[in-house]
Design goal:
about 775 residues, alpha/beta, 8-stranded mixed beta sheet, 7-stranded mixed beta sheet, 26 helices, 27 strands, binds adenosine-5'-triphosphate
Length: about 775
């Protein structure tokens, strides 16, 4: 019932009015939020206003404040920046400016304001709310407003959405725009890396982040940079020596390039800024590399928003309106944020106070506190980076003896599998363990086809899509797999893949009693575009797939602007899981998603047909249905195309596209690269501790008991989880190959609202 429509107010009563503005620096995904705010307000019989140019428009009023219709926010999801403009406004900082702003809202009956911006914009909004009673008093005295109006709008409610590429607001794990900025950075690193490796150059890359190292930190984890500077945790005074030692060590291991990533606010422990030029000079003078500097600047703010940012903007925007609609009366200002994959509401001023205490902590050299203030996700990401960059032999821990870890990939390829292989190998060899990679899944293990994976052989894999080891769907031949693992003296196995990897691993674990060679730690690393693996909220590869799908839909929708009046039926992968069709539909602005869980019936098609007839007779020129490949065995994509085309009453034509293997994407997205690294490092850490624990002193072999040491690595919130495979069984639907509980239901409800679907169907 989350997005259930409120009843229509009786005729003659004033409608509630919502206004939205974007302020401070622009960020990708702001448009998605504006679209959702306007549409959810209209859907609930409220007036929706857009305030153009941020607080400048609020202060100036007039044509800066525009009443919005449904179609005014069409076609903006795929655009970067903010179509309603943003600005910095000195006048709003002073009382007279804010008083003018208040009058502009009162004149239009608006007392619900949603501000999308950074901490400055949200601080201004909070002040505006606190001063509201004073504005009313002053305006009444000036006779600028009536007593009735002052009573009716005796308070203003504020909700903040954080639009910031820096991801610098404490209390939320992510801000609207940060993922797209990270994508631009990672794409730039991919481009730089190929030229750098060709010439054996070193690059110093400066990314945005005055007080926040999020972009630099995540870019370093995603790309495997050699050295990173973040403001929250400066290196020691000897950073030049330590950095050059690290770069030298990696070159000696065979790496053909070096990459240093620095946040623009990089400084040393005494607070003195470190410039890219100083870093270059240190590398030049010590290592005599050919070193270049790239400052990415505004490139990071550009381009189409990623799926993550579109969904974050959309859901936070919709939730902001819902929050104000369902909380009667005056409410404390809040921010719509996110904790892992859960949407949360946080008190606005508390989160701003925490945010503003980060630079204070940095200035007073409380670096551990600065990192902590950024939240538990940031803390663990900083630890992860340290772990990845501890190639220094003095950091190495061997434990009882080096172990031999085998990796195999199972199921269909997913972008990020290579990045997972790379991270697992780096983490293992840095602790002196060895890694072999079996080719082509369980078949390759059975046939004994493998290669040794070394630091150098995997060092360039972070940005490669597909799977270098090869992967296939076959279930394991238990006897042959056990024989092979024994022959190659494998101490632990990492299976990278989707549902097949999980069921295959389970089969191996259940055969342990008859096969001593299988009594080794077995870890599943979830990687599948369908995101249908139990025990994790996110599988490696699904974010890349979503972005590939949405890029295709953007392109297909664009074609409709020339061909006019067209319904597209787009078929996606995803097996029996509705995650891909629903999430991509929400991010691409599609009208409908057909999922295997809900199926398709004749009555669905009739309702949808009427929906399209109505929309196209009102002047729509494009509509999209995203159909999951297994939504129905009868109403296939060609059948739906034919039915809609036949019954369109010449209002539109219908075409279909089956996206097929395009969905695997070319290079992995930052989200997939980062989760693959986190999962892989967790696999290796767990394996090493389990192997040490289960090492039989007499035989010197690893012997785990029963179903011990068999885990699915996963993501829950921002935390990495390890769930025993046997525990997952009761949460798995083995027939449909999906987890019993899924996360995309809210997205599906919202899709109906934003596609104007329920708008019509409720009205009937
Ligand atoms: P970014 O993170 O991109 O810098 P921001 O929202 O922090 O975004 P600011 O320039 O700090 O950007 O603020 C944007 C606008 O918000 C200012 O131009 C001003 O109009 C308003 N504003 C900021 N701080 C205050 C304040 N303390 N009181 C009143 N208004 C403010």
């Amino acid at each position: 019932d989350m997005y259930k429509r409120l009843p229509e107010p009786p005729a003659g009563t004033a409608r509630r009015a919502f206004a939205v503005l974007t302020s401070g620096g622009d960020s990708q995904g702001m448009n998605a939020a504006v679209r959702a705010i306007v549409r959810v307000a209209l859907y609930n019989y409220c007036d929706a206003y857009a305030i153009y140019e941020g607080y400048v428009g609020l202060v100036n009023g007039g044509s800066f404040i525009k009443k919005m219709g449904w179609g005014d926010v069409s076609g903006i999801l795929s655009q970067g920046g903010t179509v309603i403009g943003t600005a910095r406004c000195a006048e709003f900082r002073d009382y007279p400016g804010r008083l003018k702003a208040a009058l502009n809202l009162l004149e239009r009956g608006i007392n619900n304001l949603i501000v999308i911006g950074g901490d400055g914009s949200l601080t201004g909004a909070d002040l505006f709310k606190r001063e509201w009673p004073q504005y009313l008093k002053d305006l009444l005295q000036q006779k600028a407003i009536s007593e009735e109006l002052a009573q009716r709008l005796s308070y203003i409610n504020i909700v903040g959405l954080v639009g910031s590429i820096d991801n610098d607001l404490c209390g939320t794990d992510n801000t609207i725009g940060a993922d797209t900025a990270l994508k631009r950075i990672v794409e730039s690193i991919d481009s730089i890396s190929s030229t750098a490796a060709s010439h054996q150059r070193s690059f110093v890359l400066e990314v945005m982040g005055r007080n926040c190292g999020y972009l630099a930190l995540m870019a370093a984890i995603a790309s495997g940079a050699d050295w990173t500077f973040i403001p929250e945790q400066p290196h020691g005074d000897d950073w030049r020596v330590a950095m050059c030692d690290e770069l030298k060590r990696n070159r000696e291991r065979g790496r053909r390039m070096s990459l240093v990533i620095m946040a623009e606010g990089a400084r040393d422990r005494s607070g003195t800024p470190i410039t890219a030029e100083q870093v270059k000079q240190a590398i030049d003078s010590t290592l005599h590399h050919d070193t270049r500097i790239t400052v990415l600047g505004h490139v990071q703010r550009g381009g189409a928003p990623t799926v993550y940012d579109r969904v974050l903007g959309t859901v936070c925007g919709a939730r902001a309106v819902q929050y104000l609609l369902h909380n009667a009366g005056q409410v404390r200002p809040v921010v719509m944020g996110v904790s892992g994959s859960k949407y949360i509401t946080i008190p606005l001023m508390e989160s701003i106070a925490l945010t503003q205490s980060v630079p204070v902590a940095i200035k007073s050299k409380e670096f551990a506190r600065a990192v902590e203030l950024r939240g538990p996700g940031f803390v663990s990401d900083v630890c992860l980076l340290h772990q990845l960059n501890s190639a220094d032999p003095t950091h190495r821990h061997v434990g009882t003896r080096p172990f031999k870890i085998a990796i195999a990939c199972v199921g269909a390829p997913a972008s990020g599998m290579n990045s997972a292989i790379r991270a697992a190998v780096l983490a293992a060899v840095d602790s002196l363990h060895t890694v072999i990679g079996y080719h082509d899944g369980f078949d390759g293990i059975a046939k004994g086809e493998f290669e040794e994976l070394t630091w150098l052989s995997v060092s360039q894999l972070a940005d490669k899509g597909g799977c270098v080891l090869g992967t296939n769907r076959s279930a394991p031949n238990i006897g042959q797999v056990a024989t092979s693992l024994q022959k190659h003296a494998v101490d632990a196995l990492i299976l990278i893949g989707g549902f097949e990897a999980y069921t295959g691993a389970l089969a191996l674990v259940r055969a342990r009693s008859a096969n001593p060679a299988l009594r080794i730690p077995i870890l599943c690393l979830p990687a599948t575009i369908s995101n249908n693996v139990p025990g994790t909220e996110m599988s490696v590869g699904s974010d890349t797939a979503l972005n590939a799908i949405v890029t295709c839909i953007d392109t297909i929708k664009q074609s409709a602007t020339s061909s006019r009046a067209r319904v597209f039926v787009i078929e996606t992968h995803g097996g029996n899981c509705g995650y891909l069709p629903v999430t991509s539909a929400l991010a691409a602005g599609a009208e409908r998603a057909y999922t295997p869980e809900e199926g398709i019936s004749l009555s669905t098609l009739v309702t949808d047909l009427q929906h399209f007839q109505r929309r196209f007779s009102e002047g729509a020129n494009c509509a999209v249905i995203v159909r999951g490949e297994k939504a129905s065995s009868t109403y296939t994509t060609p059948v739906i195309e034919a039915i809609l085309g036949e019954e369109s009453r010449q209002l539109f034509t219908c075409r279909s596209n089956v996206l097929g293997h395009l969905q695997q994407g070319f290079t992995p997205s930052p989200i997939d690269r980062i989760s693959s690294v986190k999962f892989a490092v967790q696999c290796v850490t767990t394996i090493v501790s389990e192997c040490n624990r289960a090492l039989d002193a007499t035989t010197n072999t690893v012997q785990v008991a029963g179903s011990e040491a068999a885990f699915m690595v996963g993501l829950k919130g921002v935390g990495i989880t390890l769930t025993p495979l046997e525990e997952l069984v009761e949460h798995s639907d083995f027939k449909l190959r999906v987890p019993k509980a899924q996360l995309w239901t809210e997205a599906n409800l919202l899709l109906h609202v934003l596609g104007k679907y329920d708008y019509y169907n409720d009205a009937k």
